[in-house]
Specification:
Belongs to the aldehyde dehydrogenase family. It is built from 15 helices and 22 strands. It has 496 residues and is of the alpha/beta class. The radius of gyration is 24 Å and the shape is globular.
């Protein structure tokens, strides 16, 4: 194995699982195992939750400025070890090192830094209102308690930080379960938090598959569930949490529209569409996989798109020139291939690039879960490949005739995570974006989600937001207090 055995983490240290069960994590680029991970039993999860409960009183009452100092030390450690952690992410996810070293750890650390600074500068302050001369109303923001974080496999360390940063900054404790497909980062993050000074029990890790997550999220001692994953699983998790009146944040999937306006330069249109479909091998929930192109522009768009496909470079994932990796697992690889097969054989979409073959490599025949970047054109709205989230490098080009038509078609989906518009007339782009039914929108760019930007989906794509000022509100409960200072208690039960 490339990496030593991964254990559970609670009470501020590594802990052996009592299940005596393990699972392997596989390098998607080679299809070979790189690590072994212990699976948590229900008893182990109970212990992790007890550890968090024991830490909560002290951590939640620690002044925000002191919590901030500790979390900022963790930020420094993350930045110092960026490349080391990025290599682990590349082995676990298959994403090129050129991506994990510049995006995954960096953007996660950005969010931790953002919330550490926010709580240090009054971000948890409440409001005060003078109701009348002798009466005031004030509000306070209180930590929720022990929270569960369920990570996703496409951005492991980033998502772990997106969840734990506001959670811990607000004074909560967390029990975190990473995806069983990409579990290696969790122990690293837990140890960085401990090294930075986060008290034992504040951040804990349990490992395992869906049954571990189900037990954790349904546990009566969990105050909030923050989940990132596919829509169907998220609906089950949210239903379970709602039945027990838990707070929830759900960041789920999408089938996002990318609209090219008639005045958009073809070069910009192609660059935007490629970033929205092939970055991270298409394994991004916000990807703009429905690319709407004006009919008159279609020939020029397709021609330039096919010319630029040579710039999608598969290869050694540690090579800095590689910008396209494999899919995350064998299961997901087979799923994406089934969608491509359906697009060709059943939907009868026109395949103009990629398909069933693996991407070409200079000097090797890859053994991992590689699929070529794939482009279907002349697609229609009723095709399965344009209706369902594929979560792979599969672009669907849909011609359109009018702006009114394309807005209606773009919104014709049960999901509403992201949407975007590319064009030169910024006023027109703003008007169209305002009509799109999605929680995250872009104009003349795609995919960037900085710490300052609250992101979350509409419709079946999620509940609540992450990041930005609104993101901190998702980790506190508010208390309002009315104080009467007049010296007399008002009553309707007085003598007439």
């Amino acid at each position: 194995m490339t990496y030593p055995l991964r254990q559970l983490y609670y009470d501020g240290k590594r802990q052996n699982a009592t299940s005596h069960s393990t699972f392997e994590t596989v390098d998607p680029a080679t299809a070979k195992p790189v690590g072994e991970v212990q699976t948590a039993s229900h008893a182990d999860i109970d212990k992790a939750i007890v550890s968090a409960q024991s830490a909560f009183q002290s951590w939640s009452t620690t002044p925000p400025i002191e919590r901030s100092r500790i979390l900022l030390r963790a930020v420094a450690l993350l930045r110092e070890r960026n490349d080391e952690i990025a290599k682990v992410e590349t082995h676990d996810t298959g994403k090129p090192f050129s991506e994990t070293s510049t995006v995954d750890v960096v953007t996660g650390a950005d969010v931790l830094e953002y919330y550490a600074n926010m709580v240090a500068s009054g971000g948890l302050n409440g409001e005060t209102t003078q109701l009348r001369p002798d009466a005031w109303v004030y509000t306070t923001k209180n930590a929720l308690g022990v929270c569960a974080g369920i990570g996703a496999w496409n951005y492991p360390i980033q998502i772990a930080l997106w969840k734990s940063a506001p959670c811990l900054a607000a004074g909560n404790c967390m029990v975190y379960k990473p995806s069983e497909f990409t579990p290696l980062h969790a122990q690293i993050l837990a140890e960085i938090y401990t090294e930075a000074g986060v008290p034992a029990g504040v951040f804990n890790v349990v490992q395992g598959a869906g049954d571990v997550g189900a037990y954790l999220t349904a546990h009566p001692s969990i105050a909030k569930v923050s989940f990132t994953g596919q829509v169907s699983t998220g609906m089950k998790v949210a239903g379970s949490a709602a039945g027990n009146m838990k707070y929830v944040t759900m960041e789920l999937g999408g089938k996002s529209p990318l609209i090219i306006l008639p005045d958009c330069p073809v070069e910009n249109a192609v660059d935007g569409a490629m970033m929205a479909n092939f970055f991270s091998t298409g394994q991004v929930c916000t990807n703009g996989t429905r690319v709407f192109v004006p009919k008159a522009m279609l020939p020029a768009f397709e021609e330039r798109l096919l010319q630029k496909m040579e710039y999608v470079r598969a290869g050694d994932v540690m090579d800095p020139n590689t910008n396209f990796g494999p899919l995350v697992s064998k299961t997901h690889y087979q799923k994406v291939l089934e969608y491509i097969k359906h697009g060709v054989n059943t939907d009868k979409a026109k395949l103009i690039h990629g398909g069933f073959s693996k991407p070409s490599f200079a000097n090797t025949n890859p053994e991992g879960y590689w699929v070529a970047p794939t482009i279907f054109t002349s697609c229609t709205d009723d095709m399965k490949i344009t209706r369902e989230e594929i979560f792979g490098p599969v672009m669907c080009i849909l011609p359109y005739s009018s702006v009114e038509e394309v807005v209606k078609r773009a919104n014709d989906t049960p999901m509403g995570l992201a949407a975007g518009v590319f064009g030169q007339d910024i006023n027109a782009a703003h008007k169209i974006v305002s009509q799109l039914q999605a929680g995250i929108t872009w104009i003349n760019t795609w995919g960037e989600s900085p710490a300052e930007m609250p992101v979350g989906g509409w419709k079946l794509s999620g509940v609540g937001v992450e990041n930005g000022r609104k993101g901190l509100e998702a980790w506190v409960k508010n208390k309002s207090t009315l104080v009467e200072m007049g010296g007399i208690v008002g009553t309707v039960f007085a003598k007439l």
